[in-house]
Amino acid sequence: MRLIHFAIRNIKGYGFRSLAIFLSVLVFAGLLVGTTVIIKGTQSSLNAGLQRLGANIVVIPQDAEDTFDTALLTGTNDKNLMPADVALKVASIPGVASVSSQIYLSTLYGADCCSFSETPLIVFDPSTDFTITPWLKSHLGRPLATGEIIGGSSIFVPRGNQYISLYGYNVTLAGNLEATGTGLDQTIFMTQATAQAIAQSSLTTAAEPLTVPSGEISSVLVKLKPGADAHKVSLQIYENVPNVSAIESPNLFGTFRNQITGLLLAFFVLMIILWVVALFLIAMMFSMSVNERKRELAVLRAIGATRNYVLRSVLAEASILALGGAALGVAGTSALLYLFQGFLSNIFKLPFLFPSAASLAIIFGIGGIFALITVVLAVLIPASRISREELAIAMRE
Fold first, then answer.
1. Do residues 25 and 325 make contact, with C-beta atoms less than 8 angstroms apart?
2. What is the residue extent of each domain of the chain?
3. Is 257 helix (H, G, I), strand (E, B) or coil?
């Protein structure tokens, strides 16, 4: 305990250099953890989006291949359509266990008849669906009734209202799905029956009626039989079903995955540069501090302190500054990311899902350990040198 008190006293006695080292560690740890959380959050968001789809393959119109990813991730409406019989053709492909078609619609822009402006609407078929139906069974315990909807995590009933208005038709929010960090969080899911009820009502209650395509669909979600090769099935869909694209789940969001790969590489290079700079600056500042304290440390040796004690006292100072700076840097960065996650997602145009508490704990631990190792390495050489210096020489300097 006396060693810790001695280290704290020295930190207070050399306030400016201690503050400089503390801030260096704070910035380094904050950047390390902040960048890691952003990349981890983006990867978690993409994975959550894929799990929400629940499909091994997604079949879409050929013209929609370049816009489908963006529509799902950003919550915009993909208006490309294909014949409804595509679902039957895909279902006949060997290796396909089940298929379910969906239709993508959206609310009107800035219209009083809609509670939300330009919000995506996904119409699913409850008789074949395997995306929303499992959630309904486990959370609601029953199918959706006509006039009921399921919302993404960001869908809510407007304050002061009991219902959500879609094209002037009041629907009941039966529940919210878990957050994914993608555009699916701003999406409303409904059955064919509800979509038709809204369309019929909108003829007299909306500024512009809702049109539900007849004989056309937006996508077909495909679940494969156990052991089926997704790539081979995708090729068979290309060969047997004209004018469609079959996207395997691992290949969804390919553009965004490439961006993440680029971010990872840039992050790795940046962290190496920052680590070298931080190591050099902290080593230089501690060297200056130790040189100024030669007589003080020599007096300490003269009254009975061992070389090992001197070394440990300097390392204790470094450890306190490292852990303090890392803790504040990690906590501050995490708080900022949590508060401004939506703002950051809009700036970088990437999906973002704040990591779980367990993932954060691991990231924080790694950040703190890395900061501690960095500072200890930086001060090890000057601390070892002063602890080995002859007492008489140190007293004269």
1. yes
2. 2-48+256-396, 57-227
3. helix
